[in-house]
Amino acid sequence: MAKIKGNKIALVVGIYVAGLHAFWALLTAIGVTQNYLDWILPLHFINNLFVVTAFNWASALILVAVAFVGGYAATWLFVWLWNAIKVK
Known about the structure:
Blueprint lengths: L5 H25 L2 H11 L13 H30 L2
Helix pairs in contact: 1-3
C-alpha cells in the first residue's frame, strides 16, 4: 500500500472544517443560529443551555483560523500514524 500524502489531505480537511465554521459565523452574522439551536437540540432530547452572543468579526476570523489549524493538525497526525502503522 502506498503512503498517503499527509499535507494534501490535511489541507482539504482543514479547508472543509474552516468552511463549516465560516458558514456558522455567517449564520450568526445574519441572526439565525439561536433559532437553529432552539429547534435542533430538543429534537435530540437536549435542553438548550446555550445563548449565541452578538456577532464579532475578530471572533469569527479567529474561529475560522483555529478550525483550520485544528482540522489540519488532527488530519496530519492521523495520516502520519496511518502511514507508520499500515505502510511497510
